[in-house]
Known about the structure:
Mean pLDDT is 93; it is low at 1-7. Helix 2 packs across helix 3 (48-55), helix 2 (25-41) crosses helix 7 (124-134) and helix 10 (177-197) runs antiparallel to helix 11. It contains eleven helices and no strands. The protein has one domain (13-221): Tetracycline Repressor, domain 2 (Orthogonal Bundle), CATH 1.10.357. 63% of the residues lie in helices and 0% in strands. With 223 residues, it is mainly α. The relative contact order is 0.12. The two termini are 31 Å apart.
Amino acid sequence: MKKLLSVLKISVPDKIFIKDPETSELGKRIIEQSIILIYEIGFDNFTFKKLGTKIGSNESSIYRYFESKHKLLLYLSSWYWAWLEYQLVIETFSISNHLEKLEKAVTIATRTVEEDNNFAHINETLLYKIIVNESSKSFLTKEVDKENKEGYFEVYKRLITRISEMILNVKKDYSYSLSLASTIIEGGLHQHYLSEHFPSITNCNKEKTPCSFFVDLVNNTLK
């Protein structure tokens, strides 16, 4: 387990940022307050000028870390996916039964997130709500293919691949493991969004959670 932990860390592709925000107190404050501000006003209304006012710093200081708010959203999304992968690896490491391991992974990928005190400058609960509401804006762009080639979505794709491998461990001849894995990741976000904003078109609620839906879906699909 110690060997596993030594190679796991919350890291973001370095092409996303100009200067790693984790290397300075200002950088950490930019990340901390950007999460709060985007949660409060939404990504469309978010600007570096507003963030600068919130952190008591010049707008130009933020541009030393990120060239645009799009890159900042890519950073937050990648950080979230890396953090989720970290949770998944840690919580499934000791499970030997392949189906139980997959069920646990699905639960981790689709559950409501609670704050992790290991990262004082990041409120994971608010970040998760941003991911549910805003993360699609990081890749529904004209530049997505170029950014994909440059590795901006490396962590996101790695997480899906990891779940795909767990699916194949349960059913080796299943032909749609990547499709199912990506459906679990994106579908979990979508069902949480629907349950909050469009409850009349989903069965998911506080009693019947997205977790239970996707565990049921996986079990019935892989019978």
